[in-house]
Amino acid sequence: MGQTDPTTAATARSTLIAGLEQQLATQEADIAGRTAFLNKDAPSVRVLRQSADALRSQIEQEKAKIGLPA
User: Fold this and answer.
1) Is there a contact between 15 and 47 (Cβ–Cβ < 8 Å)?
2) pLDDT confidence of 3, banded at 50, 70, 90?
3) Neighbour count for residue 17 (Cβ, 10 Å)
4) Radius of gyration from C-alpha coordinates of the chain
């Protein structure tokens, strides 16, 4: 097998990060919408917050792999 070109790998990771950031933005908007009529501790809001936290963590990990600040 051949080696992966570092530029190609960084570009792929950047694309992945952009997608994850879009998912995070969508979830944050959903959280904001739900907290407009639900308690911030409502089960559905807590699940969304946990999912958003997991996305943030994944974004940080992917950024670290290509040397970007978190």
Assistant:
1) no
2) confident
3) 19
4) 16
Digit-coded pLDDT (tens) for 23-37: 999 999 999 999 999
Give residue 52's identity as a one-letter amino acid code: A
pTM score over 0.70? yes
Amino acid at 31: I
Cα dihedral 23, 44, 33, 48 in deg (nearest 10): -20
The CA-atom distances, in angstroms, between 2 and each of 5, 15, 21, 59 are 9, 22, 31, 27
**Cα 51 to chain center, whole Å?**
9
Q: What is the mean predicted confidence (pLDDT) over 10-31?
A: 95
DSSP designation for 36: T
The tokens describing 30, both together, are 């959903």
